[in-house]
């Protein structure tokens, strides 16, 4: 089949998102695990770029603090675009997918649990590995001003921030990043997909709304470089509120919306006569 071009109508894009969710729900756990390790490596590469670019002009940024955020916002989504284009995955997409599949009464409870755990653990392992590689192994960001910039950002965003603020910010991120994924599915050509994946995540990054995988990488990197955060603090102030917030944002503000507006009353997906989730040519 020739590659599609143009933009899908919203209801067809919602059906495609639902098909993706069902495929992820039923795929082998090892595949899910591998895709999410690889996705974490790619998103972390975007994070490394954001650190190098965002903190690389301290003289300019001293009088123009918004410059650093704009540069980070432009750089970090490169990781998300790479994830999407190579077929890797991130945990933050699953709340949207699984809300749609659950409302369609697809899958078993253990399929949801096993897939979510494999995704989250894969992302954590991938980010921790990349953190070690970009600091202790290669010393890519151990010099100033990059070391201080990472430590200061995490101190401000996490260490000195209240739990409920981190949670609320993570909800907004979960919403924006799943909107990005929906738009990436809706748009069929490479340039449009890249731009649509980029802009919602650009907003989230500039606003410093924490993304689960993004902050797995940034915070673990900052801890290695000397941020005043313990392992327990990493769990309590990062893994718990950011994961929970991203789940709420992706499930409620994107997944539930798509189901309510574009897939009402258990609308069959793909138009197959038996109501199958798969298209007739799949």
TrEMBL record:
InterPro entries in alphabetical order: Aquaporin-like, For/NO2_transpt
Highest taxon of the lineage: Eukaryota
Keywords annotated in UniProt: Membrane, Transmembrane, Transmembrane helix
Transmembrane segments: 37-60, 80-100, 112-133, 163-183, 215-235, 242-263
A Pfam family that the UniProt record links to this protein: Form_Nir_trans
Any coiled-coil regions, as ranges: none
Bilayer topology term: Multi-pass membrane protein
Subcellular location: Membrane
Family: Belongs to the FNT transporter (TC 1.A.16) family.
Protein name: Formate/nitrite transporter
Organism field: Zasmidium cellare
């Amino acid at each position: 089949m020739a590659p599609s071009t143009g933009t899908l109508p919203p209801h067809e894009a919602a059906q495609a998102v639902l098909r993706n969710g069902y495929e992820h729900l039923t795929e082998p756990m090892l595949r899910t695990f591998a895709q999410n390790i690889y996705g974490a490596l790619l998103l972390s590469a975007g994070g490394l770029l954001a650190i190098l670019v965002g903190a690389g002009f301290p003289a300019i940024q001293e009088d123009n603090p918004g410059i650093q955020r704009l540069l980070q916002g432009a750089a970090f989504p490169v990781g998300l675009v790479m994830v999407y284009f190579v077929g890797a995955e991130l945990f933050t997409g699953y709340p949207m997918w699984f809300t749609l599949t659950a409302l369609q009464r697809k899958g078993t409870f253990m399929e949801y649990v096993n897939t979510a755990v494999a995704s989250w653990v894969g992302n954590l392992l991938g980010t921790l590995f990349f953190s070690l590689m970009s600091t202790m192994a290669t010393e890519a960001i151990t010099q100033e001003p990059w070391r201080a910039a990472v430590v200061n950002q995490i101190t401000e965003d996490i260490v000195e921030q209240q739990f409920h603020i981190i949670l609320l910010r993570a909800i907004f991120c979960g919403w924006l990043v799943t909107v990005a994924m929906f738009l990436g599915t809706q748009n069929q050509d490479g340039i449009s997909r890249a731009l649509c994946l980029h802009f919602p995540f650009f907003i989230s990054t500039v606003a410093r709304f924490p993304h689960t995988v993004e902050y797995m990488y940034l915070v673990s990197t900052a801890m290695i470089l000397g941020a005043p955060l313990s392992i327990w603090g990493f769990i309590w102030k990062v893994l718990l509120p950011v994961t929970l917030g991203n789940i709420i944002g992706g499930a409620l503000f994107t997944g539930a919306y798509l189901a309510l507006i574009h897939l009402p009353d258990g609308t069959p997906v793909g138009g197959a006569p038996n109501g199958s989730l798969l298209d007739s040519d799949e």
